[in-house]
Design goal:
Radius of gyration: 21 Å
Largest sheet: 7 strands, mixed
Number of strands: 14
Number of helices: 11
Bound molecules: pyridoxal-5'-phosphate
Order of helices and strands: HHEHEHEEHEEEEEHEEHHEEHHEH
Length: about 375
């Protein structure tokens, strides 16, 4: 992090507040001596299944593996196509490509930065097997419409809910949780996520019993019991130490959520009508969890530099659309196929937002932004 008042690492700040529970959880696990697929994993799986409202939750090594194993379990392979958004972390498209299938990128709705549901239909071909909407920044994609399209065309829906644990959406009058609407939900416990481990971790949420069984085999070498391997799997388990840490943190999730909301509201209030800033759009019938607070401005690069020089750390999510990443150059995506993403990637800027962010720090951020625009 830059100089200025943001001197302390936010993860160590959070640790200070939860130290007692976390230390206890870690040492009890060590004392127990069971580090792989034990009680902690089972307990955090139950907590997440409860939260999301699915029959099963299956701990895996990362959010990336959650996506990959979900696609594998659905039988998605070479020759298939999977529709997704190019305005996401690489993992979303990477998981698709790693199965041998081709990611088909659909442009975003510039208001929400989520996949534009009106453009999904024209991307569907005979090869399409699934849609992976990403609930970007903590607000859900339009799941009602996505489910409708998927039903009509017999497609699977895998929600990339890595940034959206606890987010919800009112669908047909009922609140539905992120990760619980599609056939499968994928979560990440990467340290900077709203529920972060002290290392990698991920979770798959699912209702289908057969598929859940398949995923449990896949994550653990395809083993039905020790040294008996039914299918070709991988080694991708959530480990007991990470699960212990997640359990200790889980009870804070609600409180942290509220704090993020307060931060977001304060930005909303104080950045309205500042320069050409476009604030994040909160859609009705949605509960946003503000994993990121991302504004838009035509002066993004200059603003980012200015803030950095003034000790305010910011980030760009994401600077290069996935269809333009060098890794995909042999798949033949053309510049211009997702114009809204290409535009957004030059204008978005994520401001500091986390539960421990103090009011003074936030005022400092706002003051610096206002100062920048006074000079424009
Ligand atoms: C973080 C993230 C992932 C990957 O999660 P890891 O646990 O880091 O593998 C996938 N998709 C999105 C949208 C993410 O933000």
């Amino acid at each position: 992090m830059g100089k200025g008042i943001f001197s302390e690492n936010r993860i160590s700040l959070q640790y200070k507040k939860t130290k007692k529970q976390i230390d206890k959880a870690i040492f009890e696990t060590i004392k127990n001596g069971n580090f792989i697929l034990g009680e902690n994993v089972k307990k955090i799986e139950e907590k997440i299944a409860n939260l999301v409202g699915t029959e099963y939750a299956i701990g895996v090594n990362s959010g990336t593996d959650a996506l990959f194993l979900s696609l594998k379990a659905l039988g998605i392979k070479n020759g298939d196509e999977v529709i997704t958004t190019p305005f996401s972390f690489i993992a979303t498209a990477e998981a698709i490509a790693n199965t041998g299938a081709k990611p088909i990128f659909v442009d975003i709705d510039p208001k929400t930065f989520n996949i534009d549901v009106l453009k999904i239909k024209r991307a569907i071909t005979k090869r399409t097997k699934a849609i992976i909407p990403v609930h970007l920044y903590g607000q859900m994609a339009d799941m009602k419409e996505i489910i409708k399209i998927a039903k009509k065309h017999k497609l699977f829906v895998i929600e990339d809910a890595a940034q959206a644990i606890g987010a919800k959406q009112k669908i047909n009058g009922k609140w539905e949780m992120a990760g619980g609407v599609g056939h499968i939900g994928c979560f990440s416990f990467f340290p900077t996520k709203n529920l972060g481990a002290f290392g990698d971790g991920g979770m798959i949420t699912i209702n289908d019993r057969k598929l859940a069984g398949e995923i449990k085999l896949l994550r653990n070498h395809g083993a039905t019991k020790k040294y008996y391997h039914e299918i070709l799997g991988v080694s991708s388990r959530l480990d007991e130490l990470q699960a212990a840490i997640l359990l200790a943190k889980f009870s804070y999730l609600n409180t942290w959520d509220k704090k993020r909301h307060n931060v977001a509201k304060f930005y909303d209030k104080n950045l309205r009508n500042v320069g050409d800033i476009i604030l994040p759009e909160l859609l009705k019938n949605n509960y946003h969890i503000y994993h990121q607070y991302t504004i838009r401005t035509k002066h993004r690069d200059a603003l980012k530099d200015f803030l950095e020089k003034n000790g305010v750390p910011t980030a760009i999510h994401y600077p290069l659309s996935l269809h333009l990443q060098p890794l995909f150059k042999n798949l033949g995506y053309k510049q211009g196929i997702c114009p809204e993403v290409e535009k957004a990637s030059k204008e978005v800027l994520s401001l500091p937002i986390y539960p421990e962010l103090s009011l003074n720090e936030q005022k400092f951020v706002i003051k610096a932004i206002k100062k920048f625009f006074e000079k424009q």
